[in-house]
Amino acid sequence: MTQLDGVVKPKTKRSKRFLESRAPKLTEDVKTAMIMKGGNTSETITQALKDIYSLKKPNAVLYKKKNIARPFEDSTSLEFFSKKTDCSLFLFGSHNKKRPNNLIFGRLFDFHVLDMIELGVEKYVSLSDIKTSKCPEGTKPMLVFAGEAFDTDNEHKRLKSLLTDFFRGPTVSAVRLAGLEHVLHFTALDGKIYIRSYRCLLKKSGCRTPRIELEEIGPSFDLVLRRTHLASDDLYKLAHRQPKALKPKKKKNISHDVFGTKFGRVHMQKQDLSKLQTRKMKGLRKRKGEVVAEDQDGQAPKVAKVES
Description:
This protein is α+β, with helices and mostly antiparallel strands. It is built from 6 helices and 16 strands.
């Protein structure tokens, strides 16, 4: 590829396809996350990153080498790796004396850090510690958020949005009942965030709808909120902007009431009621010597007698 006046021009068909894949689209691809560890990590953080990678696969990239970076002080290295791997989400793990067992969830907009939230791991149970059958790779999870803080506190609201972006998986048009087998439950209580992972078991209930039981499969996290870096309201609004082509077009003469019922208004031309076919009855038959005359308006017929 050659660069001329700030415009990258491809030399080969392969580089052309690569640039087309990175070009803006009306419907963007599935968000990919890069998972990396800092210069100093503990065994807990290393295993936690692997478990989260197994939940996020195949839409994730795991960096096995250590990266000496401090996202809150300098995010240029994260932005470089994001542009290299085309990832819009990241998870950074680190460990030090001041902030032990540290996880930083974040997302990027236009290859620049939009917002990131630092969480400390107080208690952790890995996937391998819970001896049960797991969900298949790539299963789209159901996300459940519990706790008042997710609806009232600004930082918890942004954390809810960030976790939804991170774990939601691909957008699908339809879901079968047997495919709803993975549940991620997030609870905000007393300043802590609890993350639990469950597998749905469909049991016999004696009717068509099965009985649901939840079995914990791991991983399990008890987290505490530490530092936050939130985008401004203007930048956050800009990141949510949709192209005009994706916005639904407004249809004329169609409205909805408060219950969601759809109403349509139909415009009809003026009708000639004299040619309207009615039920044939003896009383409506025309007599001999009667002439049907129209009004000047041409709306209703009148019967006039003709004297002989």
